[in-house]
Amino acid sequence: MNALAIARDRHLADYEGFAARLGKEPALVAAIRQQGARAFRRQGLPSRKLENWRYTNLGPLAKLQLGPASPNLQSPATASAGLSLGDSVARRFTLHDGRFAADRETDVTQDEGVEVQGLARLRRTAPEQAARLLSNTPIDEHPFAALNTAFLDDGALVRAPRGIFDERAIQLVVAAGAYPDPRVSHPRVLVVAEPMSHLTLILDFLNEGDGPGFTNAVTELHLAEDAVVQLVILQRERAQHFHIGGVFVHQERGSRFSCHTLSLGGALVRNDLSVQLAGEGAVSRLRGLFVAREGTVADNHTRVDHAVPHCESHELYKGIIGEGGRGVFHGHVIVQPDAQQTLAEQHNLNLLLGEKAEIDSRPQLEINADDVRCSHGSTIGQLDAEALFYLQSRAIDESGAREILTRAFAEEILAELPIPELRTSLEPVVAAELAGLQGN
Amino acid sequence: MAKGATKTPILELRDVHAEAGGTEILAGLSLRVGAGEVHAVMGPNGSGKSTLANVLAGRPSVHVTEGEVLFDGQDLTALSPEERAREGIFLAFQYPVEIPGVANMVFLKTAANALRKHRGEPELDAMDFLALLRDKAKLVDMDDKLMQRAVNEGFSGGEKKRNEILQMAILEPRLAVLDETDSGLDIDALRSVADGVNSLRNADRSMLVITHYQRLLDHIEPDHVHVLAGGRIVRSGGKELALELEERGYGWIENTTAQEARPG
To answer: Which chain A residues are Cβ-neighbours of B107 within 8 angstroms?
Structure first.
């Protein structure tokens, strides 16, 4: 048996133990879990023979001998290293190894504004509603989403009621705890934006230990008519941590979604972002910045499905790959036969900072309608020698000049982040991640 | 050898040969520039004007193969571009580089502080730098809005050249090399850039004004004029030489040089 199959069976054995411990509970959610387990058993850990996993080797993840994280055994959430944005800017909550904990606020519904609560609580108080919300995950196409579903327990539900405009963002710090041995957690986030609501959500992924571990996240968003959601995903796990995240978005008529995915750390980051434009006039704006360094992989798969006419998608991902690092971008835009008057653009720009830096870039358009405007492209380049000389001729040393130009490459993505305070507090984080990335 | 450079030279080139892309472009160029002097170097296209500028600034693609380049008695060719800048050499680029994603203000402050650090001076904080910048920007009549924009990105030709002179004002070099600073400028922009340059003239600052046309020298009056042809200085004189060139064209120099080269 190969490492992938062994790892699959290990996860499934852990699932059996987990399900047995849960004991008696509403059958609806237990059934969802079982479906997740079955779908994961069928698919297992994907091998590189599969088109969607061609460039990413899960061998190192499979060899980790992961056990399930057990937040109850942990000391209570340490003063988490989540970004400090200030109370007036963001309300902060924590998912610690997938377990919901309110920070500063209680986990009860706010009278006004965006509601944030634990999924475990929702399962107790409104099992049917919980089951309904949790049964849309595409577990048959995404083995890791299936695995996450098998371990469905707690998580966060973020709900923006009809017409609400909460000026404060929601910051959800999604932390993996520190353990003496490798552990996996399955954080789950559900976002429901009701008609005409306006929501900004920051998912701040990090891990607290220095050793290897695995975060297997699922985030689902449902944007009702004319809802506006700005999502920011920060991934800044430490060097030995693995992160696989599925983000599944459904957009109704006239809704507007923006997503910034900043993959700055981790041994392996794999993102699957899937957007379904299901209502006319829906607009999606997808932005990504990914960084890979010696021995690490940053893999972004996106899929935008234009199912109906008059929708727009604007996609720009930028990769910065240091010596010995590897990046993957695979973007897929599908325009369905009825989706006339589609506007779709998809671009992937990459900066390679060493002889042995590698990027696999595949922008892909699949157009089945005739009255559309679509563009796509990808570029791979190095730092501009002329710009380097210009900076050096102004007394800036070569390494400083390289850092300035690398940071400048990222600026296009960072400048568009929705909250000024977020940009400010990310600045030192980005600078630290980009430092030491230069080949020579 | 250039005549008239009577003071101790801040810059001295002795029989310099330089190549770029495998082609020899400077072929035995000699030049002395004294402290505080303004020298104009004129020449037709392809004579080696920009290569001379690049030899001084240290562009990596240009290589000195023979001869000496001495700045204040020190061998320049051993220094990196940033070391040259820190020693006091400034090149105003013919084509200033656009750098998307770097705010002009941040660029200028980083450059100013890199130099201050080298000199052992404390780095300027945002407030102090802003005060300095306001002061210097007046010299070139530079719009505040251009400070927040990315370096040279979408700047007009005039704005780019003003930005170069602004950098010169901030970095306070001992030798400023102006490479075709007049190219692409209308007469108003030319005047305002020249005014900026003139306000920066002083007894401790030498300038090498490289130009194809005489018109810049109407505004920046040189102490000495040199004519560059075929990678060598073929004639040197006072400012009247520029006027004569304007009248008679480069063909005149090339013809007379050829005659002088004939034996007997």
So the answer is: 391, 394, 404
